[in-house]
Amino acid sequence: MAVSNIRYGAGVTKEVGMDLQNMGAKNVCLMTDKNLSQLPPVQAVMDSLVKNGIRFQVYDNVRVEPTDTSFKEAIEFAQKGAFDAYVAVGGGSTMDTCKAANLYTSSPHSDFLDYVNAPIGKGKPVSVPLKPLIAVPTTTGTGSETTGVAIFDYEHLKVKTGIASRAIKPTLGLIDPLHTLHMPERLVANSGFDVLCHALESYTALPYHMRSPCPSNPMMRPAYQGSNPISDLWAVHALRIVAKYMKRAVRNPDDLEARSHMHLASAFAGIGFGNAGVHLCHGMSYPISGLVKTYKAKDYNVDHPLVPHGLSVVLTSPAVFTFTAQMFPERHLETAEILGADIRTARTQDAGPVLADTLRKFLFDLDVDDGLAAVGYTKADIPALVKGTLPQERVTKLAPRPQSEEDLSALFEASMKLY
Amino acid sequence: MAVSNIRYGAGVTKEVGMDLQNMGAKNVCLMTDKNLSQLPPVQAVMDSLVKNGIRFQVYDNVRVEPTDTSFKEAIEFAQKGAFDAYVAVGGGSTMDTCKAANLYTSSPHSDFLDYVNAPIGKGKPVSVPLKPLIAVPTTTGTGSETTGVAIFDYEHLKVKTGIASRAIKPTLGLIDPLHTLHMPERLVANSGFDVLCHALESYTALPYHMRSPCPSNPMMRPAYQGSNPISDLWAVHALRIVAKYMKRAVRNPDDLEARSHMHLASAFAGIGFGNAGVHLCHGMSYPISGLVKTYKAKDYNVDHPLVPHGLSVVLTSPAVFTFTAQMFPERHLETAEILGADIRTARTQDAGPVLADTLRKFLFDLDVDDGLAAVGYTKADIPALVKGTLPQERVTKLAPRPQSEEDLSALFEASMKLY
């Protein structure tokens, strides 16, 4: 169990130059995306680098929902720059791209698939030393500043996969709530749903002592090790914050208190799922976003169709937790209660429907699209969605209940409409 | 808020050889104390090192409640050995000694006082790289496996002080509950009191945003940074475990469940106080153990008078929290409730006495000596006890309420008898 280095506070971004100086950095790669490159978070980082006399180059070509192609472009940039440290300013897409750039630049003779999760890649353990990476999250969902995971679309197979290794975890996360004030409403909602599902999935994941195989060499054990007494603490705490602050954070752009708490909840849930793992909502989300046809999410300024990650994750959550509840009904009821359900008269066997109803109400209150149908999918897409879920066994095997292809079909079908 | 890597489970000690091999270690220093060197935890480590073909030397000369002299002996041993990694098997004394040996061997040109906390030492920041250190705690109190702190008696001034730097934090803590089964009753009780006070003090410490000064360079900020939203989570969680399991763990040597939970609580509280800090119970405990006259604690097999650390900490706790409660009465009431008090009718202004009474009952139930008088102190010793507390400002300034010398006198006097 690894806890992460984070520093929290309004304005901590201004310290990034000093941190890099303390790390001995002289030539820094600043990664961000085109939208953010004109916004205050990136400006604050550049000002701090200039003030501390640190040379840097900006890479602002990060793709929102990155692909192997966009990862490779960033890696190429990093290789040419011969940087001795990295700063990622943005959401999960930027932090994940930066992790990949750092990894492959530090391991120049590796093939791209070497470190990509099996079965798509070879899933090799990382044994090369990486450069320091400071992550400055500007969204309140991914928790990528605390995890050793980098997710991308593998275009060739039209499927999401990723790299998972403790070695790519950022050296430091600077969690500055001021950055949340620039977030449009849907971005707050969708990234909040990611936090919600990180918490729910890691808390209901297969316990660490029931996971198999359990490699005898600790180095070969996966980053996602199943629910455990430490990740449980983070998951429940993050969920309580979501229950208390998420609606306020979505609805009020100026509610710094609520958005600050969601910014911390994102990191807390990240520490939880970064050690325990996620399961079906995330495993099924990858084809939902990977196979997107024409849906373009409101509030996202991108030039390609997009089902945002948090939305793709949360749309299946009522169906998923109805399915999984029979394994750990108490935990499902407990989370429903945290999210506002009255469980005093609930029976154990109703844990799934109780949590599902609670989630549906939560999503409805936050104006979430009515299921997979509303983001462009029909029943005819289900076989492809199932096929895209099968390679995600790294996470789906952490579900408390095994799933057949028929089970997955039924879960997608049950997620076509929510209300 | 910083990293602590821990791995938990019955038998994880057996993995230490593989961990060291993964770290590239070839010549390891195994530190322990004379009592433990004949016991199963050390044997398990040696077996694992042998099995993995790792060369090692044993240093079993660690002093329980170490001194600058005993630290220096260990440092000298380490310097001669030119080790590339360390394993500490024992309680806080062993882990702290090993941290110091690793630090000064990695910084051979430093004077011993360079890294010692001001005002006794120079309190220089650590900028040299250290060797990997794996900590295997065998007591359930110190949490030293998760902290960047090493405490010792500075004999010349007859006062406890220490070294505090994130740089000396162990690379990995292996938390193996099997080791708790060898602990005699008083060792479980006293180390549990250390956990109790770590949790209570860090939860009631001055909040991080009220601490001053706040050095502009993050590297210069103290390891003990005041209570914060992350340390709070660990403190409260550890306290709940203490409330639930400590009495069982003390009374039943075979209660592996209770002792396992206390072993984890020790690490959890360590992560909490290792970031937030402790305050008056710890600050006042250093002269209480440092000025010991003839008291010899039951169940401790040592050849010198000894007030065990956890006992020296807890004896002042009723007086301390009566004194501090006016600042954060809600937190004091909340902790009293966790420890079993009925606070439904308690008034805010009674928070101190309510928590103090709860603590007195808790201590009485666990057969704790009746105050400072019972460990050999009289009123005539109070000026010396106060004088020994004054240099502990690194921690005492984290108390939620400032203290004059008169306040400290009154706190010692109120701690002479508990019941």
TrEMBL record, chains A, B:
<dbReference type="InterPro" id="IPR056798">
    <property type="entry name" value="ADH_Fe_C"/>
</dbReference>
<keyword id="KW-0560">Oxidoreductase</keyword>
<protein>
    <recommendedName>
        <fullName>Hydroxyacid-oxoacid transhydrogenase, mitochondrial</fullName>
        <ecNumber>1.1.99.24</ecNumber>
    </recommendedName>
</protein>
<keyword id="KW-0809">Transit peptide</keyword>
<feature type="domain" description="Fe-containing alcohol dehydrogenase-like C-terminal">
    <location>
        <begin position="226"/>
        <end position="416"/>
    </location>
</feature>
<dbReference type="GO" id="GO:0004022">
    <property type="term" value="F:alcohol dehydrogenase (NAD+) activity"/>
</dbReference>
<dbReference type="GO" id="GO:0046872">
    <property type="term" value="F:metal ion binding"/>
</dbReference>
<comment type="similarity">
    <text>Belongs to the iron-containing alcohol dehydrogenase family. Hydroxyacid-oxoacid transhydrogenase subfamily.</text>
</comment>
<keyword id="KW-0496">Mitochondrion</keyword>
<dbReference type="Pfam" id="PF25137">
    <property type="entry name" value="ADH_Fe_C"/>
</dbReference>
<feature type="domain" description="Alcohol dehydrogenase iron-type/glycerol dehydrogenase GldA">
    <location>
        <begin position="5"/>
        <end position="177"/>
    </location>
</feature>
<dbReference type="InterPro" id="IPR001670">
    <property type="entry name" value="ADH_Fe/GldA"/>
</dbReference>
<dbReference type="GO" id="GO:0005739">
    <property type="term" value="C:mitochondrion"/>
</dbReference>
<dbReference type="InterPro" id="IPR039697">
    <property type="entry name" value="Alcohol_dehydrogenase_Fe"/>
</dbReference>
<dbReference type="InterPro" id="IPR042157">
    <property type="entry name" value="HOT"/>
</dbReference>
<dbReference type="Pfam" id="PF00465">
    <property type="entry name" value="Fe-ADH"/>
</dbReference>
<dbReference type="GO" id="GO:0047988">
    <property type="term" value="F:hydroxyacid-oxoacid transhydrogenase activity"/>
</dbReference>
